[in-house]
């Protein structure tokens, strides 16, 4: 599994990938880093299939819509997300597969009412908190 953390100011975004199936997802993309996500995925021979927004962002300009437009990837968010360009909405406990990598959505309202954490299917002790 590929796991890259990208820092922009105080914000974190992530690129995860399944080299065996050449699939990737970008988590909480920042608008100014779109070329970087595409470059990292391309370097690894991965196609970005999902763009996951873990909450409504007030701390940076989301690059989800632009990255989806450029790559054809599906934007994923929690079912309560008000984001208009979401193609797939996850409920608490649902699994999303990025190639062979399972991510479980956990609804964690507080920061925003649509906040969610992602747990790797085979490593429930390692949460990706975005």
Strand-residue proportion? 35-45%
- The number of distinct helices, counting runs of at least 4 residues, comes to 2
Total number of beta strands: 10
Cα-to-Cα separation, first versus last residue: 19 Å
Structural class: mainly beta
CATH architecture: 4-Layer Sandwich
Query: In the residues, how many domains can be counted?
Result: 1
Q: How much is the radius of gyration in Å?
A: 13 Å
Features:
130 residues, mainly beta, Metallo-beta-lactamase, Chain A, six-stranded mixed sheet, four-stranded antiparallel sheet, 43% strand, disordered C terminus
Describe this structure in words.
This protein has a single domain (2-128), classed as Ribonuclease Z/Hydroxyacylglutathione hydrolase-like (Metallo-beta-lactamase, Chain A, 4-Layer Sandwich), CATH 3.60.15.10. The chain is mainly β and 130 residues long. The strands form 2 sheets. A 6-stranded mixed sheet has the order 1-2-3-4-5-6. It has a 4-stranded antiparallel sheet with strand order 7-8-9-10, with no helix packed on it. The protein has helices at residues 34-43, 64-71, and strands at residues 2-8, 11-18, 23-27, 47-52, 74-78, 88-90, 95-98, 101-107, 116-120, 123-128. Mean pLDDT is 89; it is low at 124-130. Strand 7 (95-98) and strand 8 form a beta hairpin.
């Amino acid at each position: 599994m590929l796991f890259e953390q990208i820092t922009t100011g105080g914000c974190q975004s992530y690129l995860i990938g399944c080299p065996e199936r050449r699939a990737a997802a970008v988590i909480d993309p920042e608008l100014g880093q779109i070329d970087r996500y595409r470059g990292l995925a391309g370097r690894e021979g991965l196609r970005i299939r999902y763009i996951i927004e873990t909450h409504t962002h007030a701390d940076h300009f989301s690059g989800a819509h632009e990255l989806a437009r450029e790559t054809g990837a599906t934007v994923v968010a929690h079912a309560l997300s008000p984001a208009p360009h979401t193609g797939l909405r996850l409920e608490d406990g649902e699994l999303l597969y990025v190639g062979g990598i399972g991510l479980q959505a956990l609804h964690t309202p507080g920061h925003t009412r649509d906040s969610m954490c992602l747990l790797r299917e085979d490593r429930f002790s390692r949460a990706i908190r975005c």
